[in-house]
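Exercise 3.2. Students should predict the tertiary structure of the chain below and write it as structure tokens, then compare their answer with the key that follows.

Predict this chain's 3D structure.
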Amino acid sequence: MKILFICGSLEPGKDGVGDYTRRLSAELIRQGHSASIMSIHDKYVSQTSSTHQQDSRIQALTIRIPRKMTWKQRAMEAAKFVADIDPDWISLQYVPYSFHSKGLPFGMLRFVKKLSKRPSWHIMFHELWVEPKTTKSKLICFFQASIIRLLVHTIKPKVVHTHLPLYESRLRSIGCEALPLPLFSNIKKNTTKKRHLSSNRFRIIFFSQISSNKLVFDFLKSIANEILDSGLSLEIIYVGNGTRLKPEIKAAFSTYQLTSYTRFSGFLSESEVSSLLLESNLAITPLPTQYLGKSGTIAAYIEHNLPIAAPIISTMNEKPVLGIYGEQAKKFILLQPSLKAIREMEEEGLVNCLSISEITSKFITDLASRKMTIK
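Answer key:
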């Protein structure tokens, strides 16, 4: 297949969806397909530029169109590129804030009409609309949902994907049937090392995200007590820029008497992060459980066979909601502090179920089936 991806920005390391699309494109090329990428709201370029970007030494053709252009100008540039490469599929990687600073990309509706109607359309919904909590957010939510509804009915995608059961349900509520496509890891596994755990040390890791939420620190304190009572030494590592850690988080470590067990690694290379994950016993996420599937970091933990503590439990009808696709993936999630449960996970052997090769193969299979998504 010949696939053209559309995203907001393609600045490496600066845009999560851009990085995701680059990795997916490289894997598609590795599997024998053709993939190119077009960013249409790129704040990191001042003029349209065409080049190649690479992932794992595999290069994909890219065109970057600056956001300072009008939607009409961007559509003209995009239409020329589409005509040149003549793709079988156009895959829109949708996040409202990727295409408009306030998350209201009305111009997208006119933009997509200008592109060739010959390719089949695909949409991957990474995000939908804001939670309607205040009067302002309710208004934004209404317009964001309306844009999505109009977008879907304008381009009539043959396949729609999302990575979150919650989003699948919300899309269904506006008449769009989405298929599950889990996220793959945002950290490549260091293939030169194997998973290795110390027999006398228990290492807990926070990567990139950390919260002073009481539920997170209650969980952390409880599991820390179990670890220390068992005679193990405890190490808590926060991977990120420790000098920028928020004062309330530093205060939480102090309040819970965990400061002496904690160290801040600062920024690490991707290979160093992977090695650290392979040598850790537990990761803790501050994400509510209904949003676990939208995190490339959660996928990274699974890629590295690492149990994941998720203390902020979303519920429905008093039952926990695990917002991640696949029963195997759910086996990685620990909802209550229990050293015994972690040991059982280690003994049973958690198996990575979110490999990029398998997810990419599912992507291609779903496109090949050309399922209709519009009711």
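Discussion points: Residues 277 and 287 are 18 Å apart (CA to CA). Residues 135-155 form the longest helix (21 residues).
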